[in-house]
Amino acid sequence: MRKAGFDNHIVLFFTNYLMDKKTNYFWNNFMSPVFNVNVRVGQGSALSPILSVLYLLPFIFISQSNSFDISNSRLFCSYNVSTNLLEKFGLVVKHAKTKIFHFNRSHGAFNPSLFDPTPLGESILRPNDIWKYLRFIFDRKLTFHQHVNFYTNKSISTIK
Question: Same domain for 100 and 110?
């Protein structure tokens, strides 16, 4: 994180949270010896989405254009450079988990073109109708109707 340019306060927070932890247990009159705890941020942890965003933010691409072809061309170049960089760092991009999403302000029919990274040896990506990110549900027109409906229904079912 330090190499990525994060503030020292943030680096120290995660260092203190994740490293050199010890614990022991009490049960009635029994006390266990102190032992090291290997602390990790597991899936479902409150820190998991925060760390994901911090690490992946440089790899979220936004392209704005009146033409899908121009936008997709820009995205293709960014995608190509990013996957090459990540591979040089020894990281593997799971292309099946890669998402593409087009926002649109028009009121008429909306049929975005496909994103085609097949020259990179990958399959064609089809734009999603909704995008779930950090528990928010985005639609293409940013109306948040699906987000509100989902959490309203979840609240009502919880109350029942």
Answer: yes
- Per-residue pLDDT tens for 18-61? 677 777 888 888 998 988 876 666 666 777 667 766 766 666 77
Q: Is residue 2 part of a domain?
A: no
Tell me: do 113 and 145 sit in the same domain.
no
Q: In degrees to the nearest 10, what's the CA dihedral of 147, 155, 42, 128?
A: -20
* Domain limits for position 23: 8-42
Residues 113-127 as b/e (b if ≥16 CB within 10 A, e otherwise) read eebebeeeebeebeb
* Rounded Cα–Cα distance for residues 108 and 89 (Å): 44
Tokens of 46: 């409150």
CA distance 1 to 17: 14
For residue 33, is it within any domain?
yes
Classify residue 123: in a domain, yes or no: yes
**134 and 123 in a common domain:** no
Q: Quick check: 22 and 34 in contact, CB under 8 A? A: yes
pLDDT tens digits, one per residue of 62-112: 777 777 778 778 887 888 888 888 788 777 777 767 777 777 666 666 566
